[in-house]
Amino acid sequence: MNVLVTRKLPSSVLDRLRAVANVDLYAGDAAIPPDELRARVADKHALVCLLTDTIDRDVIDAAPSLKVIANVAVGYNNIDVAHAHARGVIVTNTPDVLTESVADFTWALILAITRRLSEGERLLRRGEWKGWARDFMLGTELTGKQLGRVGLGRIARAVAARAPAFGMRVAYTSRRDTPGDGGPRSQVVLPHAESMSLDRLLNTSDVVSLHVPLTPDTRHLIDKRTLARMKRSAYLINTARGPVVDEAALAWALQQHLLAGAALDVYENEPAIHPDLLGLENVLLVPHLASGTTETRTAMADLAVDNVMAVLGGRAPLTPVS
Ligand code: GLV
After folding, report:
1. CA–CA separation, 148 vs 10, rounded Å?
2. Could you say which of 116, 157, 211, 241 is catalytic?
3. Domains delineated in the chain
4. How far is the first Cα of the chain from the last one, in angstroms, to the nearest whole number?
5. What atom of ligand 1 comes closest to residue 288's alpha carbon?
6. Pocket test for ligand 1, best of 74, 101, 264 (most atoms within 8 A of CB)
7. Is 94 exposed, middle or buried (0-12, 13-18, 19+ CB in 10 A)?
8. Whose CA is nearest to atom 5 of ligand 1?
9. What is the Cα–Cα distance from 203 to 260, expressed in whole angstroms?
10. pTM of whole model > 0.85?
11. Is 219 annotated in the active site?
12. Are 309 and 17 in contact (CB under 8 A)?
């Protein structure tokens, strides 16, 4: 069996795959160019890809023997899943193994933006700190405030589970009326959370954290209209997918002080950042790091390879995308 792996994975993970298949590894540091991807996938039975690879109709059609596309990510908006399924190709992702890491990181962003960590560090490195002063660079307290989580999935719930440690109450909104998407790590003890419409959540929350997948429905869910619903003292956190937020609208809203600040891990056109955001002090910008611990990234690669090995071995995939 032939497997294309589009980016270097930990050697322990690659070795497991090499023991059962011929592995064609794209060893470049950036994403594999689309024409090379189409050429190299042509004789493959499995494809291990990353969120930076666009697996569209052309890629899928270029690989007549393909059985499985294993995305090393929980999000799979980079894959034309409907076309893969129509062609009988299984698509898998890596849920669960990154939940805690992303939830921790979400709280790192919440704490950093509300306490002005990166703004303070920038000032200090510019040599502009004049010494301690009682009213210097004051932030916002979390205790007694409301965390509004948009989404009901595993990550949203793991973020909510941490809220009592910071004295925050939780509100949530979701278009689905089922209580989330389950999974082994979903058995966390959740604090009481009030369900409300998106408008009311935006209108009443002090921190709004986005945890929805990118779909046609959620693209620009946060735009000029919804931003205008937020409290002027509130913060927006995005660790989901960049296009869930209209970046130009967010930059405008931050310039107008329609909200107090935003912390972003993901962007509309990664790795490009909207130029208006770069000049603002009330936005914290980090380079898509939320799942980025050694442990989690290795577990994600392991799970993707487990999915490939299951499908090529004639067994059911562990974490198929439905
Ligand atoms: C990261 O963004 C992922 O979807 O795993």
Report:
1. 36
2. 241
3. 2-97+294-312 (3.40.50.720), 99-285 (3.40.50.720)
4. 24
5. 2
6. 74
7. buried
8. 73
9. 13
10. yes
11. no
12. yes
